[in-house]
Every structure is written in C-alpha cells, then in structure tokens.
Amino acid sequence: MENTVKPMEDPQLFGHPKGLFYLFFAELWERFSFYGMRALLTLYMVDVVFAALTTRDFAAAAVYASYGSLVYASTVIGGRISDKILGMRNSIFLGGILMAIGHFVLAVENNYAFFIALALIVVGNGFFKPNISTFVGSLYKEDDIRKDSGFVIFYMGINIGGFAAPLLCGWLGREYGWHYGFGLAGIGMLIGLITFWSGIKKNIFGDKGLPPTETILDKPILGIKQGLMIPILAVASVPLIAYLLSSYKALGEKGSFLEDDNIVNIIFYVIAIAIGAFLIKILIEANSDERKKLIVAILITFFITIFWGFHELSGSIITLFAARNVNLTFIDASQTNALNSMYIIILSIPISMLFTYLKKKKLDPRTPYKFGLGLAFAGISFFILSMSSGSADENGMVPFSYLLVMYFLISVGELFMSPVGLSKITDLSPKRIVAFMMGIWFLASAFAFQIVGFIGKQLAIESTDKNVGGLETLGIYTDGFGLVAKYALGASVIVLIASPLIKKLMGKVH
Ligand code: GLN
C-alpha cells in the first residue's frame, strides 16, 4: 500500500520552528544567570573575597581571567561528550543543574564556597552553552535560509538576559547584599531549565537532541553506566577546577619570565602551543584550496580573540573603573554591565538590515573588512574612554556619557564580527575538521580572557582601601585604555591592509 502519511513537520511559530522559542527562553535565562553573576563578580572579589589583600585587584584580575578562560574552554569538552555520548538534551540538563547549584553556592558567604561555586559554573557552562547553540542549528535543515535569522533571534535572547540581569542582580546586590544578587542568578538558571524541560514535555523538539544511539548511555565504563559516569566525573572535576581557580598567585619572582603567571596561564600557554602545532600539521596535509581557506579561518579566529580580549574587559577593569572613576547617578558600577547587551538589542536589527540593504546593492563589505572595521570600533571606543580624563572633576570622576559612548561603539564592533564569524568558520573549514574548528572558535573566547587577565594585572591598584579611586586611579586606567586603543587600532589597520589578500584566499566565500 502506498504510504500517504506525510512526515510530521516540526511545529512552527512566527515562521520559525517552535523549538527555537523554547531554546530562546532557556538561553535567555541561562545568560541571565551568567551575566547577573558576572556583573557582581569582580566587585565582590575586590570588596569581599580578597578585601584584606593589598594585591586584591591583582588577585581579582587573575581569578576573573582563569574563570573566564575555563568557562569557555570547558565548552570544547562539553560539546564532544554531547556528540559522542550524552546528546544535547541530557547535556543541557546536566549543565543547567550544575550552573544553578553553582549560583546558589555563591549565595553562601565563604571563600571555599566561592571557588567551588565558580568551578561548578565552569563545568556546567561547558555542558550547557555549546549544546544549546548547536541545538538551534539542528532545528533547521542545512540549506534552510531561515537559519541565519534564527541565530539573530537567539542572539537577541542572549542579550535580553545579559541586559536585565546586571540591572536586577546588581540592584539586589547593592540594596540587600551580594548573596541576594547571586541567588537571583541561580533562580534565573532554574527558570531556564524549567523552560527547556517544558519544551521536551510538550514534545516540541521531536527526535532532536537525543543521544547518538539508544543504548549508549547504558554502556558501562569501569562497571558504571556511562549515563551515570559522566555526571559523576563532572562533579568529581569540580574540586580540581576550584583548586586551579584559587591558584591566583604568580609562580615566578618579580622580574622573571613568569612574574604574573599562575598555573592556569601556563595551561593555556601549553594549549596554545599544542593547537598551533596541530594546525601547522593540518595546513601541511591540506590541498592548496583547503589550505587557503583554512588560513583565513585561523586568521578570523585570531582576530576575534583580540576583539573579545578587549571587549571582555567590561566585567573586569571597566567595572572597577566605573566604580572608582565614573559619576554614576541612575545605576551603579555592576549595572553598567547591562550597557553592552542594551546596545546589541537596539542595534542588531538595524545593522543586519543595513547589511542586507548593502548586499542588494552589491556593496556589503566582505568578511575581512567587517573584521577590520569591528576592531576599529573597539579601538575608537577605548580611545574615547581614555579621553575621559580630560573631563574629570576635581575628585577624578568622569561623566557617565563616556561609558555610554564607549559601549555603543564596541557593541557596533561586536555586530560586525560575532554573528558573521561563526558562519564563516563553517564555510571555510574542510568538512573533516569543522567540529574541531568550532571548538577553536569557542576557545577564542577562552584565550581572550587571558588577554583580559594580562591587562587587568597591569592596571591593578595596590590598596585595601574600600574607597580607593578618584585622582589616585584615574590616570592609571585612562592610560591603560589609551594603550588598549592603540593595540586595537593597530590590529585593525593590519587587518584592513591585509584584507585584499585575505579576500583572494577566501575564493568564493563571501
Ligand atoms: N555575549 C555572547 C554570549 O554570551 C558572546 C560572548 C563571548 O563569546 N565572549 O554568548
């Protein structure tokens, strides 16, 4: 008998698979927890965890960098375990639960609890973040033209969370105490998990996101089912990661090669060398067309690392600058962390419309130019922040408008680079290593935090005074921002000059 039953279409909403909106809200709340906590993190370390140290800024910069690096590096492992064993759904649940516990542990006022909590978030994010992003991709068939706009909608969700969280968690932290702020972050994560779970209950995702085979979770390792062994290993890794995070002291003497470096820095040096060696091997083995494209993929990953390295200063040195040197009336320093996401929400649709318009006129800049311009925006944004010292009052406080302009510009830069980069990596990498290159793309954010740590340590103020700031710190910060501006602008000029050549290497890829 002829089969007349059509295959079940996934349910649709507003022209997109309905599942997108469940993932949108789950990620919105996950990022709410991530950025709510991040807004408080540096200030909490400086004012509470390391308050008694004269080197508290240095310690905070080191831990912030280690946390940021590990929280993004763990995504490479989480992505792989999901592909091979757990599947996206289980990974998202495991990651979300670990993150929620991490945020609640942060609500306990104790320094050991602090590092355990950060480690839980590192492991949890490793399972959650890469898998929810790939889940979005899996809702669309490969050639579905709605995929890009699906990701734009998803990026919006990320930033709605990133906008609301610093405002709310920052307010709670200020009015009622740090731990209420962290607690709210935990509640946000729980709402994210419940959203995802309700999507599964209503069978919104069909058969997507399941483990690669039906029996794989039951396969034993060392006599224990894999489905159980992985959560056990994930939890067991927490004390080790907590130990790494707490090792903020530099290993070398002053003046030596390792004068600022701790164990995590060394680990990332080793990873960088290993990746470099592996990429050279792949480049040698590739055929000439593959090699050209791969060089471009490596270059754009390198450029985005530099960009995030300056951009991610927001949760660290820029938050301290806001606390110590910016005249804030409506919001406090932690809440300034909402500005980047606010601009992304406002600008992402106009900028994507601009690119579509230019595309129609065949005038849209190709990827390397977009990257060069993105870095230029970052450079100008820091240049403006460095100029703020000229408008400081007699107490060394600068107008809030500088921060507003700075965040506006760097957010424009972000929209020139971040959404474009991800899809270019898939276009430019040979199929057999595309998953590896995606991993490297996430590692770019991890390495960026090493840059953040380096800059943060250079600009660390030695003091235990809660009210340090004003004229004492203004010049240090604004000179530092001036240097960042020079590096970003220098990088942008190099990229723009090299763009015609990079364009040639890209062949047909736009
Ligand atoms: N703001 C984006 C997010 O949270 C990208 C951050 C990054 O990769 N450094 O997903």
Can you tell me about this structure?
It is a multi-pass membrane protein. This is Amino acid/peptide transporter. Keywords: Cell membrane, Membrane, Peptide transport, Protein transport, Transmembrane, Transmembrane helix, Transport. This protein has 510 residues and is mostly helical. The protein has 2 domains: 14-250, Growth Hormone, Chain: A (Up-down Bundle), CATH 1.20.1250; 259-510, MFS general substrate transporter like domains (Growth Hormone, Chain: A), CATH 1.20.1250. Helix content is 73%, strand content 2%. The protein has helices at 18-49, 56-106, 111-138, 147-175, 178-201, 226-246, 263-285, 288-311, 317-325, 338-360, 367-387, 401-428, 434-458, 471-506; strands at residues 12-13, 16-17, 220-221, 224-225. The protein has a two-stranded antiparallel ribbon. Strand 3 and strand 4 (224-225) form a beta hairpin. Helix 4 (147-175) runs antiparallel to helix 5 and helix 9 (317-325) packs antiparallel against helix 14 (471-506). The N and C termini lie far apart (48 Å). Residues 1-7 have low confidence and may be disordered. Residues 31, 158, 308, 312, 445 line the site of glutamine. Glutamine binds at residues 31, 158, 308, 312, 445.
